[in-house]
Write a structure and sequence with these properties.
- This protein is of the alpha+beta class.
- It has 23 helices and 31 strands.
- The strands form 6 sheets. A 6-stranded antiparallel β-sheet has the order 13-12-11-16-15-14, sandwiched between helices. A 5-stranded antiparallel β-sheet has the order 2-1-5-4-3. Strands 7-6-10-9-8 form a 5-stranded antiparallel β-sheet.
- The longest helix has 48 residues, at 7-54.
- It is flat.
- The N and C termini lie far apart (115 Å).
């Protein structure tokens, strides 16, 4: 832009020089004027101050007093400060100074041209005094009789005046700089636009370019029109004038006033582009191309015209071919928008009506609708199910949707399927096979005006899927041989989409079946949580979300939600593997953080196996998240850990909602051996724990924060059952077409009451086993469980004895009685013996010569379940005995159980 060789650069430099000169001259004028104004103000201010002080009340009496300086000096200093002058000097006619801003000058003789003031005439002058070069005004002080008794002089130094001028200079220079920047910016914008319009060319180059363009424009054998804003013709070359027979004054006239054909005029005044569109202009057939000049130029368009009169003969066929191509293009866009077989068939029928046929029907094989392969040969297919109809105004004319049609061998559909080629029936009233299919229906069809039929088989990848029937009625031309190839092309495109939908249906059915087999079929019986759940699959396909409710020892319950990234069989299979692993790890009573660490190692191992097994170098890496929580109803404690999963929500009994912020851990497979942090909290009884996958809160219409806020709003409010909570959350959060699976788990917490828990501390003394066993028996009697007292005493004796003999202190015994939240069960009785040793007992079959080793076997036979879980201070050995009838061995059978441990021959 600064180049002097371009027109824009020359204009910019000229404008910038003019602006600099104007700003400099203005700045000098402003400085001079400011100095002049300030000097005038100084003269006026000194004279006014001097007159005011000379005529002030009491000044004459002060001058005639014994000490005039003492009387006048304070007033002079105050007046000086108020007036903003440098000094107020009072001196007598003898020239002795009575007041001065500099106390050292008081009593000295004044030096200066004050004779005029002594004669009674005030004056203002500039001279060098004790304060330096100053502007001084002197006014006489008159006695009551009119005689001059003193003179008041008020000076303002030129330095003060210059200081005021200097204070205004930054403002003046700043304004000048701003004006210069604004003017330079405006000049730059003008020059930039000029440079863009001239493309950086100089005047000579622009002249030469215009001459060349003008020569080319009028020499080319193609008409060129330039239409500007307002639909006026800006330019027309010689060829355009000849082709359109334009008047000599056509330029600058409106296009609508040129007398062109109506359709061509509509194109020229419209805002749409055109490519090789054919228009009639007089006896000429013109191929018109139109392009809009905006946004690269001014508003308008450029139109080119070619004489194609020789194409008039084939214009009709070209129009038909163009329409057919457009229909094929539209078919490619409109057919196969979904992976649903029936909907794809409906799209085929809808796209062909009315542009190719008046009525279209599609018949498919039943296996295709179910997503299966058709194993029968094409010549043996006679049964098809009507899957789509378009173009009919009545449902009773043709066979209805969903009907299974059995075609006779001579029917056009049977003939087309047998030959594997389209079958054309130009006149339906002459087709014996078609008439024989259903004579009464055929009569109604002919009376309706349907007269021509084209049947095209639907084949994809060598497999017959069905057939499509194109019908023409009333004033439409019968199908001809030229229509057969187009119908075949249309059917081929649709058949491929139908086959894709069929394959998707098959894979989707398999994936759904696999997924349903891997998800929980129901909720296990437990007494700690009242649980409800929802699982909603995505519209896009089967995903890898899962949930679980896993009863643990000591009435504890584990809640699990997880999400495998992606959709399809791989995601569902991975979900099944992870869910199984979680069940296995939970059965080992691992802490929540250790369970996720083990699960992270498993996912990393799965990824390594996938990479090693990939033959093409492309493997499917498993991306998964998981949240694992364990609730203990005896203490109300909740331990949670998460691996890349959104935290849960806790709805307290009063209706307040807390969205827990758990310690951040990476998703499964990315932990790289890093530890997982655990969060622990105590939840009040009656609280609702809400665990979910990210599909519930993330959606294309809202971000994560908005989803969490919507979830908080859906959960807040009065207390609801878990089932009602699930319903409310799904209604508030679910979109019309969820793109991801949604797993929602709502659990209301329960607590074991004091009458359900009994605890005793046990000294490490074999003699302490009896008293503790007796105390347990009394507690069972209080609970009304006398029928299980004998079995309970045996189990407790063995567990306590092992803890005393092999364990470490502290040793404690706890009895838990559970009551199921629902169902007919009577609950269970849980025995727990804890000690300070981390050594776990092992079940084994004792040898014939062993005196011991049968106690744990006895516990395993008498209890329904037993196991060991480790604690930070040791371990807990537990056994669970159901309370419903027939679940526990009776006392009479205990002896048989013990005798089974010895061989009969050994005894």
């Amino acid at each position: 832009m600064l180049s002097v060789h371009s027109l824009a650069g020359q204009v910019f430099l000229l404008q910038l020089a003019v602006v600099v000169l104007i700003v400099a001259a203005t700045l000098v004028a402003l400085v001079v004027q400011a100095r002049r104004d300030i000097m005038a103000d100084a003269r006026h201010r000194t004279l006014t101050t001097a007159q005011a002080f000379a005529n002030s009340p009491g000044i004459v009496s002060a001058l005639k007093s014994a000490h005039p300086t003492a009387a006048l000096q304070p007033h002079a200093q105050a007046a000086r400060k108020a007036a903003g002058v440098d000094a107020i000097i009072v001196y007598g006619l003898n020239g002795i100074t009575l007041t001065h801003s500099d106390p050292h000058q008081i009593g000295k003789r004044v030096i200066g041209p004050y004779a005029q003031a002594a004669t009674g005439k005030p004056f203002t002058s500039t001279f060098q005094g004790s304060l330096g070069l100053s502007v001084v005004s002197a006014v006489p002080v008159r006695a009551p009789d009119g005689s001059v008794i003193a003179i008041v002089s008020v000076p303002v130094t030129v330095e003060s005046v210059q200081h005021r001028v200097n204070r205004q200079l930054p403002v003046l220079f700043g304004g000048a700089a701003t004006a210069l920047v604004v003017a330079a910016g405006g000049s730059a914008l003008v020059s930039r636009r000029l440079r863009r319009q001239t493309h950086g060319l100089g005047a000579t180059e622009m002249t030469r370019m215009y001459e060349h363009h003008d020569a080319v424009l009028h020499a080319v054998r193609e008409g060129v029109l330039i239409v500007g804003d307002g639909r006026r013709l800006l330019l027309a070359n010689d060829e355009a004038r000849r082709l359109l027979d334009l008047p000599t004054d056509a330029e600058q006239r409106r296009v609508t006033d040129l007398g062109l054909a109506e359709d061509l005029t509509a194109l020229l005044v419209s805002d749409r582009p055109a490519t090789d569109e054919v228009y009639l202009a007089g006896d000429r057939l013109l191929a018109v191309n139109k392009r809009l000049t905006a946004p690269h130029g001014p508003v308008g368009s450029v139109v080119t015209l070619r004489d194609t009169t020789e194409l008039r003969i084939v214009a009709g066929r070209a129009e038909v071919a163009r329409e057919r191509l457009r229909l094929l293009y539209d078919a490619g866009l409109r057919i196969g928008t979904t992976l649903d077989v029936k909907r794809t068939a409906e799209e085929l029928a809808e796209v062909a009506v009315p542009r190719f046929a008046d009525i279209v029907t599609v018949e498919l094989l039943d296996p295709v609708l179910r997503g299966e392969e058709c194993s029968r040969a094409a010549d043996g297919i006679t049964e098809l199910r009507r899957s789509a109809v378009a173009g009919l105004d009545t449902d009773r004319l043709l066979n209805p949707l969903g009907k299974l049609i059995r075609f006779v061998p001579d029917h056009p559909v049977s003939m087309a399927l047998a030959d594997g080629r389209p079958f054309l029936v130009g006149a339906l009233n002459a087709s014996g096979g078609w008439l024989a299919q259903d004579p009464e229906r055929a009569r109604r069809i002919l009376e309706h005006g349907i007269h021509s039929l084209l049947v095209v088989p639907l084949r994809a990848r060598g497999v017959v899927l069905g057939a499509v029937e194109f019908w023409r009625a009333k004033d439409s031309q019968p199908f001809e041989d030229e229509d057969v190839s187009f119908g075949e092309e249309l059917a081929a495109r649709a058949a491929l989409c139908i086959d894709n939908a069929r394959r998707y249906t098959r894979e989707h059915t398999m994936a759904v079946t696999l997924q349903h087999s891997l998800l929980p079929r129901g909720l296990p019986e437990q007494s700690a949580l009242d649980v409800a759940y929802r699982y909603l699959p995505a519209q896009a396909g089967v995903g890898g979300d899962w949930f679980d409710v896993i009863p643990l020892s000591g009435t504890r319950v584990a809640l699990v939600v997880g999400d495998v990234v992606g959709h399809g069989l791989h995601a569902a299979a991975t979900m099944g593997r992870l869910r199984t692993a979680v069940h296995n790890f939970a059965g080992l009573d691992l802490p929540v953080e250790e369970l996720l660490v083990r699960l992270d190692e498993l996912v990393a191992q799965i990824d390594a196996e996938e990479i090693a097994a990939a033959e093409d170098g492309q493997s499917m890496i498993t991306g998964a998240t998981c949240q694992y929580a364990v609730y203990d109803p005896t203490s109300g404690r909740l331990a949670l850990a998460t691996a890349g999963h959104p935290g849960p929500a806790v709805v307290r009994p009063d209706g307040t909602v807390d969205l827990l912020q758990l310690p951040v851990s990476p998703p499964l497979g990315l932990g790289a051996g890093l530890p997982v942090e655990t969060a622990e909290l105590t939840v009040p009884e009656g609280s609702r724990l809400v665990l979910f996958t990210d599909g519930l809160i993330e959606d294309r219409t809202r971000d994560l924060d908005a989803g969490l806020e919507a979830l908080r709003h859906a959960l807040s409010g009065p207390a609801r059952t878990p089932e009602a909570t699930c319903t409310a959350v799904v209604q508030a959060m679910l979109s019309d077409r969820p793109r991801d699976d949604i797993a929602l788990l709502v659990a209301r917490t329960c607590r074991l009451g004091p009458d359900q828990v009994a605890e005793w501390d046990v000294p490490r003394d074999p003699a302490a086993v009896g008293p503790v066993r007796a105390a347990c028996a009394r507690r069972l009697t209080e609970w009304g469980l006398e029928e299980v007292t004998f079995t309970a005493e045996l189990v407790l004796s063995e567990l306590i004895t092992n803890a005393v003999r092999y364990g470490g202190e502290p040793i404690a015994v706890r009895l838990l009685r559970t009551v199921p939240l629902s169902g007919p069960g009577a609950g269970s009785l849980i025995f727990e013996v804890s000690d300070g040793s981390s050594t776990s007992p092992r079940l084994r079959r004792a040898k014939d010569t062993d005196e011991g080793g049968r106690g744990l076997f006895l516990v395993a036979r008498l209890a329904e379940r037993w196991g060991t879980r480790y604690t930070p201070t040791g371990k807990v050995i537990w056994a669970e005995q159901p309370l419903h009838g027939g679940a526990a061995p009776e006392a009479a059978g205990v002896g048989d159980i013990l005798l089974d441990q010895w061989d009969d021959t050994a005894l």
